[in-house]
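SEVERITY: medium
COMPONENT: batch folding queue
REPORTER: lab tech (J.R.)

DESCRIPTION
The queue accepted two submissions in a row. Attaching both inputs and their returned structure tokens so the on-call engineer can compare them side by side.

ATTACHMENT 1
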Amino acid sequence: MGTSFKQPIPLVTVVLGMVWAVSGCAHGDGKGASLEPEALIATAGLPEDLRLELAAREPAVVDPVGMAFGADGSMYVVEMGGYPTRPEGTPPLGRVKRLVDVDLDGYFESWTLFADRLQYPTSVLPWRDGILVTQPPDILFLRDEDGDGRADTREALFSGFPVANTQHNINGLTWGLDNWVYAANGGNQGSGHPAGEPDAIVSIRGMDFRFKPDTGVLETSYETTGGHGITFDAWGRMFGTHNLNHIQHMVFPAAYLAQNPFLSVPTTRDTISDHGASAQLFQLSDAETRVNHPEQSGRFSGGSGIAFYGGGALPAAY
């Protein structure tokens, strides 16, 4: 008996560059013309029953790659400055900003530099009175102890994760329904271990992983997509992205297969897009040529960022 998961699922994928709507995006004329955020939003081409609003702009956010909301409504934004490489001997340029919507109008006009000198950070997740940040080789816990909006302490909870291709670093910190924190492998494979326990190595080759930040337990979770971002729906089903395959369903956890090492299963992931894996793009700007993989021009080649939405704010058609 088989079960198909290719029915409509209320998922929303988010391109951070559109959410932040920062200046410097090309449009239409092929000359890389820069647009102000308000003008850029007007080019989004959304259906009439949807709208896109500006939440933050430079210099409040620069090079954003991830964000999460704290219990007080503040927004933590991860900035991967220096991507993809930085000059040898220079300090890391990654940062975390804390943004506040003071007048509750949906625009975050106040911000502080929560943490800097982070090495290619990729994701953030509030926990207890601080935030967790993926910053290979570590998963850090950052806390603001005096209420000034800046982290005073920085503690590595887990370490040993690979530092290689910066676009494939660990990422996607997300709470599961089981109260574990889940994260994506990203594609660099490797392993990790609880901080201070270098012999307690957990291989994450080909796998995403999960952990308990309070107890230091670390284990594999689902087969990885090798991409950036994961999410769970209201039923606990996990979904992820890949550069070329923008939405995949991780059908069941690796622990089930581990019970029978003699069972060979090619994959436990399923592509659920109704328009194919390497789907065609209908971009507003002129199509760019590629030196490597020219066949990917005009198609998904940098799919990243995914979030489940099950609320009631969207129109009935969605």
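ATTACHMENT 2
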Amino acid sequence: MVKWNDKRLIFLYVVVLIGIFFLWKFIGPVVLFKNVKMSIIKQNGTIDNLDAPRVSDFSEEYYINTINFPDGSVLHHKDLGNFGYSADFFINFQTRVEVLKSGLYIFQIASDDGFRFFINTNIIGEFLTNRPFATNQYTVMLNKGLYDFYIDYYQGYGLLGVTAKYQHNEDSRSYYIGENSPYFRFLRK
């Protein structure tokens, strides 16, 4: 008969708790916290700027954990893998954020090709035409409260990628949009 205070049973409990902790810490954020809506529109034809008329061949929607598609030849998410797109598509990213600490925030949007970044209905920054992977930085004052973030991105031809980060001006660490921190909590819109 097994007793609750049996050393083997206690060891098993400890191993199970450690396993649950590691699953939560390393897999949980990728699987559970997908608060960024990503709408991909495959263009029927070529695209040379963000404001090109959208003639949809087809579209797909996903929920992702962060806006983190490094520079490459195919749309590849750092945590979620390949999405299979390589040319002539638009992506609209949407999320709601609760700002937990008022202050100046630095946003870094890196893209190949163009993008437009909104907070609520205000355009914070944009790059509308083709370019190699490069970063634009914007500083914005945000008070505690809820905000809607939107990033419109397009890829014409060649290499591609888009990443979006934020950072409180009093902290040296940056976080990907979609990644919770002591400053932001992301919510599904």
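NOTES FROM REPORTER
The CA atoms of residues 21 and 155 lie 39 Å apart.
No errors were logged for either attachment.
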